[in-house]
């Protein structure tokens, strides 16, 4: 279990390092006002952040998911693993979906405040477009770090402020984890030969496709989650009363396209994130679990379970 934990943490960190810039782009595209756009699309948002805030701007809020990795992986391992142990048919798609959904539901209580801090850190400073102003006046810093963000949210609204967006996080992660686990198992059954060990390229490709599939299914909910967590971050009056109010007002102002804002950057992010996570997790297990083995037997249920969990914990 210690090897699994270490592999999960290191693989997750690698995934965050690779995928966080596109996550920042996703959040900014999701939350921008369509009537007063700052960004025309993924590439324009990416180049604008680098131009105005340097490359450091792409990694705003990254410490929040990094710190939360241990807790998230522990929860996912515990919930998903124990459910699969008592399942009468652990390889069935239904069991995979239900176990993944349960893991997503429970870990949402840790993920929600972590993502609130990440989202608000990613958004601060983006409204400073005065190119003629001195560089020290362009980025107005509201939060010093994720902890400072959570403390200010608690001071302003109590625990309700820290857990703003919890309902939408649950609605996103429960089905999202379920779709990922069942989708991964289904795709592996389609493309791999049960008599041989799948190649690393097969693992990366299947993991990436499963991640993209889960994001497509849950993406509209993620848009609403981001908007709720960003709402009122600068001390202004809140726009949205609750989840449904956010849906109605967003649709009324921007139509159906509002629910796919930033999807391109999310899909682009899924593949490199999965690739980095899978590679690191696989090599850590090989080095720490049994250094004499040159190949990881991914047909071993324990190893398959581990690889599934680590990628999902960081990409969904």
TrEMBL record:
Solcar repeats: 2-86, 91-190, 198-287
UniProt-annotated location(s): Mitochondrion inner membrane
SUPFAM superfamilies found in the cross-reference section: Mitochondrial carrier
BP terms from Gene Ontology: mitochondrial L-ornithine transmembrane transport
Transmembrane segments: 201-221
GO MF: high-affinity L-arginine transmembrane transporter activity
Reactions this protein catalyses: L-histidine(out) = L-histidine(in); L-lysine(out) + L-arginine(in) = L-lysine(in) + L-arginine(out); L-histidine(out) + L-arginine(in) = L-histidine(in) + L-arginine(out); L-homoarginine(in) + L-arginine(out) = L-homoarginine(out) + L-arginine(in)
Record's bilayer topology term: Multi-pass membrane protein
CC terms in the record's Gene Ontology section: mitochondrial inner membrane
Keywords: Amino-acid transport, Membrane, Mitochondrion, Mitochondrion inner membrane, Repeat, Transmembrane, Transmembrane helix, Transport
InterPro entries: MCP (IPR002067), MCP_dom_sf (IPR023395), MCP_transmembrane (IPR018108), Mitochondrial_Carrier (IPR050567)
Record carries keyword Ribonucleoprotein: no
Keyword Transport tagged: yes
Family statement: Belongs to the mitochondrial carrier (TC 2.A.29) family.
Protein name according to UniProt: Mitochondrial basic amino acids transporter
UniProt organism field: Trichonephila clavata
